[in-house]
Amino acid sequence: MADRDGLNKFIRSLESTRWQDVVASLCDLSDRFRSEHVEPGVVVLLNLWPEMRERPSSSSVFGNDARQTIRRATYRLLRTFGDVLAVDGAVRRILPNVTSLSSKVELVLLVGHRENSGHKLVTEIASDGFESMLRNEIRAASADELAKECDPSRVLVFAKHYGGPPEDQIDIDDSPKLTFALLRSVHGEMESGSWGGRAVRRTAVLNWERLIDLYGSKEVLKTRIKNLRSEFDTLKPWLDTRRIPLDEAEQLLDLADRYLSGSRPDAD
Question: Are residues 223 and 248 in the same domain?
Fold first, then answer.
């Protein structure tokens, strides 16, 4: 745990399907964490999350089980210090080594003072500073960089809603890659039917309201999705590099078209 490279190589030597269980198991060892474990451990965990396979979550329509597992382990590591100034210094050193904006958002929210997300592990002044710095970093990111994020919608919501005017105005690039990535990040499954038998039905859904909020209007969102549809063939090589099956991508576009037509699967 004190050796960042060694810990990273060990976890990545395992099958990726085991990563979430390994990270969850770390929480059972939290009484053995020491201060020298914190920074290397948090960096490795936060950089691991974007590559973790999301499992269906029974607690939420929109899967976030992997993210919650990473949050729990990160929290237990950081609380090892027991001192806000020590955590403040650690977060300042950790952030430059975290490669994903999605993971940086999780860390900043975790240690901060936001209701329902923050554990107040740093001072309020430090929390405000981390948030401001991260919002600026997100706004400076290119469309291609944002499209690579594992949760770009959450990243952009953070940039738009966690600052005051004029930060609440955000222009989202008309990039088919980014439009697709945003659609994918608001995709989830709704379960209905009997839990005790085989009659459970899973229906694909989108967090449509989040997309409308980010784009500012349904009309802008409609234009972006239509552009994505017209440019879809040019997107296929990028989908291949992202290891996103073509049929999965086409199903996502079909689902978006249903929402545009007013036929929401969650309202059927």
Answer: yes
